[in-house]
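Assess this today:

___
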Amino acid sequence: VIDFVEENRDAIQRLTNSSELKIVVDAGANPASPFVGFRASISAAPQGMTDLKAEVVRLRREKQKLERRLSGMRARLADPRFLEKAPDEVVRGLERRQAEYNT
């Protein structure tokens, strides 16, 4: 199995859209043995997802940014002075964006 995976590594990576392919053989197992006790696992890391921690940080920042925008919209739409002075198109635009952010 390991030989097959190694021989076809490029094709497997293309088919799984992976940037990395790892083969881990159970410690103490004989990779040449076809008998019970041989275990191997193969994992493929999707392209662009090799640094999961960085992606989580990026998504948290994006979430905070969107929450600040939504908070600002809510504050403007709750301000009677803003509603009196702002053109109707501006108010409707804010209401539409707020509805989009809430979905």
In short: The first strand starts at residue 18 and ends at 25. The chain has a mean pLDDT of 78. The chain has five helices and two strands.
